[in-house]
Specification:
Blueprint: H1 2-10, H2 14-20, E1 24-25, H3 29-47, H4 53-63, E2 71-73, E3 77-79, E4 85-87, E5 91-93, E6 97-100, E7 105-107, E8 112-113, E9 118-120, E10 122-123, H5 128-132, E11 135-138, E12 141-143, E13 148-149, E14 154-155, E15 160-161, E16 166-167, E17 172-173, E18 181-184, E19 189-193
Parallel strand pairs: 2-5, 3-6, 4-7, 5-8, 6-9, 7-12, 8-13, 9-14, 12-15, 13-16, 14-17, 16-18
Antiparallel strand pairs: 1-11, 10-11, 18-19
Helix pairs in contact: 3-4
């Protein structure tokens, strides 16, 4: 009896597995309830009058893992949980931002995101058997300071984008992108470095 109790108490919850980057069951009750909570909060957020900026921001301040005094996300906005989203200062996102924040999404200062951008930390096994059985995984996304993400971009699990970088519209970012570059395409690749000539 004692051994059985110790084994049970030491097992990770599905939420702990999710945040640790291990395979987990997303349809487990605790995670489903947390996603439902986020949906309820975002329903309010997305349906407030356009003039209710402070009220909208208060919803996100309570939902997100970190915010600052200066951020603006145009509704509609969607996320899975909210508590895994960490915003830097002076953040702006245009319409239809989607963040699947099963793992941490860390966004630096002075980041701009165009419309219809999706950040996906969530993934599913390639083999059909574990995928059909409901197993998922999540890997963090990090976006550096002063970065601009063009509209209709998709950022996949585990990607880091360096500071000062520009990601062109319509890109699918599957691998890390270094700092101080312009990158675009599907899959996204570095096109050139950003230089002083770009100030003109």
């Amino acid at each position: 009896m004692k051994k059985s109790y110790l084994r049970i108490t030491m097992e990770k919850t599905e939420k702990e597995k999710m945040i640790a980057g291990e395979l987990y069951q997303a349809m487990e009750k605790e995670l489903m309830n947390e996603r439902q909570h986020a949906k309820e909060q975002l329903f309010q957020y997305n349906n407030l009058e356009p003039s209710k900026i402070k009220a909208r921001n208060q919803i996100l301040k309570k939902l997100f893992g970190r915010t600052t005094s200066r951020f603006f996300i145009e509704p509609p906005f969607r996320c899975d949980y909210g508590y895994n989203i960490f915003l830097g200062a002076n953040f702006y996102a245009n319409y239809n931002l989607i963040i699947l924040d099963c793992a941490p999404v860390t966004i630096g200062d002075n980041v701009m995101i165009g419309p219809n951008v999706s950040l996906f930390t969530a993934g599913h096994p390639v083999h059909p058997e574990p995928r059909v059985a409901g197993w998922e995984f999540a890997k963090p996304i990090t976006i550096g300071d002063n970065t601009w993400i063009g509209g209709h971009t998709v950022i996949n699990p585990g990607v880091t984008i360096g500071k000062n970088t520009v990601i062109g519209s319509g890109s699918v970012v599957t691998k890390d992108i270094p700092e101080n570059v312009v990158a675009a395409g599907n899959p996204c690749r570095v096109l050139r470095e950003i230089t002083n000539e770009d100030k003109k």
